[in-house]
Amino acid sequence: MTEPGTVHRPPGVRGARRAAVVALVASISITAVVGIVVLLTGDFGEVQGRVLTTTLLVAGFSTVALCHLAVAGRPVRVVGFVGLAVSAIALVIGLVLIWTPWDAWNDGSGELWRWFGVTGVLALSLAHANLLLLLAGRRHPFVRAAMAVTLTAIALVALLVILPILSDGRIPGDGGWDAYWRWFGVIAIVDALGTIVLPVVGLLLRDRPAEASATGLPAATSAAPLAPDALDQRIAALAAERGLDREALLAAALDALEARPGRPEDVAEGR
User: Fold this and answer.
1) Cα(239)–Cα(246) distance, rounded to whole angstroms?
2) Is 144 helix (H, G, I), strand (E, B) or coil?
3) How far is 232 from 256, CA to CA, in rounded Å?
4) What's this model's pTM, rounded to 2 decimal places?
5) Alpha-carbon torsion angle 8, 14, 16, 18, nearest 10
6) Which residue, of 16, 88, 118, 227, is most buried by count of CB atoms within 10 Å of its CB?
7) Which key words tag this protein in UniProt (predicted)?
8) What is the dihedral of CA 93, 94, 98, 101, to 10 degrees?
């Protein structure tokens, strides 16, 4: 039986993370090799350019995918899966743009470039949000308020970038250009401030005992202490389930805690 508060990792998440890391390392390695060959031979043609941009695109996708997979085992996992889907769409569009000869496009590539820009902005914004959502389990009022403000700023920044792309610059238009991008700058500063401050504050502020649902421990251990009889019954039941006597069970529990020093939530999540 799974204890409440633990991180549930769907099957395949670890393999997906490993594949993303391998793709990232391979892409960076190929990019480095192409760069070295170009510098030594001085021959940089169309094929080399396509290979270089492809590896850079795959490296970017792998990096963003790791951000999405960071929340795959948490209650907010749906945001990570949406981010993966959007990132995959951006990757496919980018590969089509890179490997389709320019002569074949004529004037038809504008629409694909537009959607590549939109999906790329969404993928990066969702990756940014997913990294902050690692603190979604915290219950401290300041952490929750700061997260809400920062996530709102991330969404607004993405919207203000996407609108000009979708409208071919008609939004904000010539008349509203100055005010539009001034407000964009203000929201972007709030976004950056929250991104820097929120993780630091999350490390400094501890959840109150009444907010123990964020600790990663079972609810029974983070609420009021159990009565002696109830505690004895729980120990006896667990000892019988594991085939251990009481002393061996308690010794194993103490060994596990001593082997993983740190905060209770880190121990419970296996960090």
Assistant:
1) 6
2) helix
3) 20
4) 0.69
5) 150
6) 118
7) Membrane, Transmembrane, Transmembrane helix
8) 20
